[in-house]
């Protein structure tokens, strides 16, 4: 048996264009993301960032063969199938199941992830959920109602629910928005630690210090087009990027 090619991209986006009526939200976007990479996605409001991650995660459909994940064309697969293939995302505004405890919120995600494996017992799923919560610093909150969590704890639980689906690629959508500087550091440290678990992370964020610290590469979108991609310092120094954020 031929061993897998670890040098091959984990995610390949090829010529991705997305229109809504006469409006072009993404215009011929192409990028490869490597296994284990910490990838920052930036751009001003309305630049196409959310549309891009919706196309990757399956919330939006695109044209033929524009999204390839782990060597498989997933362009036409629905979002729930992509999740089971290993793509997970967190959302900027956490929406927990308010009638459930923290650990029960995770159990929902775990039940979905292992639905195709009937041999995984409820006790094992609970143990896995507790392990994920411990990694997020939320073990002591496991039996608390999700409604009692602070804002930073809700963001951690949102990441924990995404992790419960066993992703190879995690898309973090502004997980630090509205947090204090110390809370930003907490969440950033959690995202950085995922690299040790062989998880690729795409981080969408407006906090530039966090982007600079986290990312190995950064891509900037503006008006649906890539205007810069490369090392964080190079992208931040790019005149077109500065103009997109600050104006000409």
Describe what this molecule looks like in 3D:
This protein has 248 residues and is α/β, with parallel strands linked by helices. It has a single domain (11-246), classed as Rossmann fold, CATH 3.40.50.300. 36% of the residues lie in helices and 23% in strands. The protein has nine helices and ten strands. The chain has helices at residues 49-57, 79-85, 102-113, 122-135, 151-163, 181-193, 208-214, 232-237, 239-246; strands at residues 11-20, 23-33, 38-42, 67-69, 72-73, 87-90, 169-173, 200-204, 217-222, 225-230. The strands form two sheets. The protein has a six-stranded mixed sheet, sandwiched between helices. A hairpin with a 2-residue loop joins strand 1 (11-20) and strand 2 (23-33). The model has no long low-confidence stretch (mean pLDDT 90).
């Amino acid at each position: 048996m031929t061993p897998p090619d670890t040098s091959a991209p984990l995610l390949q986006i090829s010529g991705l264009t997305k229109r809504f009526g006469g409006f072009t939200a993404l215009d011929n976007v192409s990028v490869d993301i490597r296994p284990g990479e910490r990838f920052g996605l930036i751009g001003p409001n309305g630049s196409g960032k959310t549309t891009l991650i919706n196309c990757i995660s399956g919330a939006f459909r695109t044209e033929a063969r524009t999204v390839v994940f782990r060597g498989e064309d997933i362009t036409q697969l629905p979002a729930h199938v992509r999740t089971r293939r290993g793509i997970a995302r967190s959302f900027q505004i956490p929406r927990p199941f308010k009638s459930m405890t923290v650990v029960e919120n995770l159990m929902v995600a775990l039940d979905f992830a292992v639905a195709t494996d009937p041999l995984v017992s409820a006790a094992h799923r609970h143990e896995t959920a507790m392990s994920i919560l411990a990694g997020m610093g939320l073990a002591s909150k496991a039996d608390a109602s999700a409604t009692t969590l602070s804002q930073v704890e809700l963001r951690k639980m949102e990441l924990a629910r995404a992790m419960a689906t066993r992703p190879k690629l995690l898309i973090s959508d502004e997980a630090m928005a509205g947090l204090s500087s110390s809370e930003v550091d907490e969440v950033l440290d959690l995202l950085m630690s995922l690299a040790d678990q062989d998880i690729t992370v795409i981080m969408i964020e407006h906090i530039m210090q966090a982007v600079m610290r986290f990312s190995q590469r950064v891509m900037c979108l503006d008006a649906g087009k890539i205007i810069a991609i490369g090392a964080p310092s190079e992208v931040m120094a790019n005149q077109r990027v500065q103009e997109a954020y600050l104006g000409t």
